[in-house]
């Protein structure tokens, strides 16, 4: 299995096995529509010719919006606005999927201006907020929102959708025993905690039809006490595959532990900008702790992928620390993954897939400093903010 060999996801043919993993762009209008900056970002990525590009997470309803310049999939207005972006990507031979999300308890309360919705009232230790427990009606409506958003993605010409069920956002919040303390049909045991995701999947599938690829990104491990672990996530992944999911990207971590998701440097100076001393001390020490116990290494979720893969009958996408041709090919050849995905390296070097294919480079120059993560968290536009003299963490 070679990196630059074709692969098929739910009937969609990809030119190679390299994926651009989702990264929040923060370039939308205040209505969540793509702008010239969005189009520019995707044009540069498409020129690098990865097999598949996954957009940053687009909210399915304004109650699930995390950032003021996040893209939305909540209104039909997005359909015409995304079409030219999608067309540009196609002209370069790549494919593009829209990632859809509801932010749940991880929406920023100050920016969103609405009550935070979550499975249970578990405080958010980053934004110091307390969400409200969703009613059954709100849950049902939100499931419908996911379906409608997916339908819009298909109409806009996207090649696939990816359901964001990772990183502590609403779906992931339902899956995690830490944040889902419900005792009704939406929580109480692993089966009921996974019901929200399976219902979202079924609704999305019926909205887009059987001939349109539906993927998911899901935590294999929350990496927090009482969180989701492989004992529960692996069987769920296999169940989703049996229900008709077309591909699964595995990840880990949540807002309270972001360095599990994007391992590497601790962007404390950026995160602490404008904050008072006790808060700065709190964030600096938390980030230092996370960084120490979760150091960066290449392909850092590969061991989980290798354990899950033999039982998973659909393509597995490995993300997290993919940084070299050799490492990427080793993940494919060892049978741990069917595709490899990169986020930070392609923000820095959108033409990296092409450079790798042509043999002009064999490593990413991204040092995983996480300054991009810090800047978007502060509301900045997605870009590489790596200092020229920064070393690998
Ligand atoms: C700036 C930034 C924005 C991100 N936005 C998203 C997102 O919108 N959706 C998502 O699923 N993951 C998001 N992630 C996580 C990445 O997709 C990826 O899982 C993680 O960074 C590890 O991959 P990497 O080592 O190739 O960067 C983001 C990461 C960064 C650094």
TrEMBL record:
InterPro entries in alphabetical order: Aldolase_TIM, NADH_flavin_oxidoreductase, OxRdtase_FMN_N
Q: Does the keyword Magnesium belong to this entry?
A: no
Supply the EC number(s): 1.-.-.-
Residue ranges constituting the NADH:flavin oxidoreductase/NADH oxidase N-terminal domain according to the UniProt record: 2-223
This entry's Gene Ontology molecular function terms read: FMN binding; oxidoreductase activity
Q: What Pfam families does this protein's entry cite?
A: Oxidored_FMN
Recorded protein name is: NADH oxidase
For this UniProt record, the keywords arranged alphabetically read as follows: Flavoprotein, Oxidoreductase
Under which main EC class is this enzyme filed?
Answer: oxidoreductase
